[in-house]
Design a protein that fits this description.
Layout: E1 8-10, H1 12-20, E2 25-28, H2 32-36, E3 44-45, H3 51-54, E4 64-67, H4 72-83, E5 90-92, H5 95-101
Parallel strand pairs: 1-5, 2-3, 2-4, 4-5
């Protein structure tokens, strides 16, 4: 996947396509109360506030993409993980707010 060669901001549609093909590991970095209000199907929850506890467990077999509410925290997670040498590739621009504006599915499972 050539577009993962450097830091990448993905659109909600790109994330939906890649996640639907299991081509990325999608990580929601919002806090628990935000996750409980709804998240992208197939995402895993890893709060930014606990990044040091989980960053070393990121998978190395497929690109990691972060998202949050609007893109700020996912950008922070990306920057901090890259600086520490963890295998991350990009984040979803506009966060779940942009995802919802596109009418894409949200779950509360």
């Amino acid at each position: 996947m050539a577009f993962f060669n450097a830091f990448k901001t993905l659109s909600p549609q790109e994330v939906q396509d890649l996640a639907g093909r299991d081509a990325i590991h999608l990580v929601d970095v919002r806090e628990a109360h935000e996750w409980n209000e709804g998240h992208i199907p197939g995402a895993v929850h890893r709060p930014l506030s606990e990044l040091s506890a989980w960053a070393g467990d990121l998978p190395k077999d497929r690109p990691v993409v972060f998202y949050c509410l609007s893109g700020g925290r996912s950008g922070q997670a990306l920057s901090r993980c890259k600086s520490a040498g963890h295998p991350v590739e990009g984040h979803m621009g506009g966060g779940i707010s942009a995802w919802r504006m596109q009418g894409l599915p949200v779950t509360r499972d």
